[in-house]
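Input record, target 12 of the design panel.
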């Protein structure tokens, strides 16, 4: 089973793009603090690259902002590639199946444009509607839907 749960803060505003076949893809990074501190008392942080497809990605792009705390449920995907010096590298990505907004953005953003969301509304939740394809160097012809 390949399942990951992350709770952390967005390091920047999400970036929404569209493939040539008009499928929405949103990319963002989540900073997650480790539960322990180093010997010098410093707490380490891990940074996870996350991708959300279609409606889920559109919602994240529309309502999430830099600094906001989110919960991401998804799967880990490894990508192998060769860098400019010819060295083989591996990148770790998280493909989101579910994203929940846990708190308002620290920069003062609001959710007043979300139907049914008032000043003190609970966190907004959004879920992926379908399985997402692998994040390899793919053409639009390789997308299974």
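The sequence produced for target 12 reads:
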């Amino acid at each position: 089973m390949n399942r990951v749960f992350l709770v952390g803060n967005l390091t920047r505003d999400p970036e929404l793009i569209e493939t040539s076949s008009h499928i929405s893809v949103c990319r963002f990074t989540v900073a997650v603090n480790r539960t322990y501190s180093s010997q010098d008392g410093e707490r380490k942080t891990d940074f996870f690259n996350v991708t959300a497809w279609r409606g889920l990605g559109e919602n994240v792009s529309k309502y999430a902002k830099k600094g906001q705390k989110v919960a991401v449920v998804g799967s880990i995907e490894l990508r192998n590639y060769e860098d400019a010096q010819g060295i083989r590298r591996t990148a770790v990505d998280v493909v989101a199946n579910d994203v929940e907004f846990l708190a308002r953005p620290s920069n003062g953003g609001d959710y007043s444009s979300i139907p049914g969301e008032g000043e003190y509304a609970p966190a907004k939740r959004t879920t992926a509607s379908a399985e997402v394809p692998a994040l390899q160097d793919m053409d639009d012809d390789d997308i299974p839907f």
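The mean pLDDT is 81.
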